[in-house]
Predict the 3D structure of the following.
Amino acid sequence: MAQEYYSEAEWNGFQSLFPNSGNRTGVMKLAGPDPRYNCIAWALGRTELWIDPPAEPAYFRALFLSPLFKLKECQADQALVDGFYKDDTGVCTHGSRLVQGNRWTSKLGQGFLISHPREALNDYSKQHRSLYGDNVFHFCPDPNAMDIVSMPSPPLALQQSQFLLLLTFMASIQMAFPRYWQHFDANWKSWALVYRQPGGITASSSSDFARGPAWDALISMGTRILPLVVEKIVKESELFACQLYNALQTAPDKKLSPQNNEHFYILNWQIVWIANLYRSQFDEFEKAAQAWRVDQQVAMYSSTAVSYVSGKNYQALVNMGKAIIPFIMGRYCQDQHGWWYELLNEIMTGAKYGLAIINKEALYQAWANWFEYGGDEPPRIESSASGAMFACVIQAGAHRQKVRIPLAT
């Protein structure tokens, strides 16, 4: 776009975010909107990346001082790059870059790239009205920066050919549980509207969208939607899916921590790590599930049911936790007479059912209903005058319904 000033209507909105921005002619739109990069990426000289601002000051400084960006801290009057911090929330928020004279430039989240006086975005009133707070960090080029060979490097780009088994599983589970996929898809679209609306355009961090009713609806679906979140990453390179994956993934070794610095905050890098880590989780499940299957074949001559649901391979699956529930359901739907219900119940409650259940078709249907509609409460067995019943609480939107299925035990 050609350089232009904000219109009167646009300027009113801008001043509501930055009350100390001065006159309309002091701020100019240079480019955008462009969702591919944000303020931190622009401040660090990268327009092909989305780089979340680390919330904590220590991590914020560490990112800006990464060898990748060849900067060092300096006095304000020597700085070419500023970092912003909101003292009312204790969160780092934004970065800006000097281009010439006193003309500083900022990318407003997914929105416009603008030029502005250095102080225009600051919150000098200390009334906490400015969107980004104050520029309290100052950086300039480091002439002694490491050679490029020593720099952190991005992970290899995703190749869908490396994920064929995982993608095949994702397709099969959506076919087996169509309502599960439809429920996720509706919630995802509602959430995507939040970060694509004008009100979300100026947000500088993907964490700004990790709240609200649409986000809560996705989180309430639990680990069962992890394959669908990863599919968004592998097939569509959805950067903001990092927030959802990290919130849902229960295995600490299958996600990055902020200590991974560039690989965590550069979302274009983090999605590659997430895809590869989740693929390794799937592979580990498949290996353990196959080993457990062999154990069950050995136990087929045993007179006790516990022989089928014990041993190191079964325990290895239990230890993988709730993150593998979608993998289990993918197997369970193809093996409805198997012992998957015991594995599911032990992961969810810490205990087995411990009953010799004959009506396994009804049992599977209860777990299938729970997987597609349920909340945190798994199906459970209740005793009644008419015999044992399998009770499953089904969550459909805002409605909760208890379904009871008779079992022969």
The two ends are 72 Å apart (CA to CA). Residues 267-298 form the longest helix (32 residues).
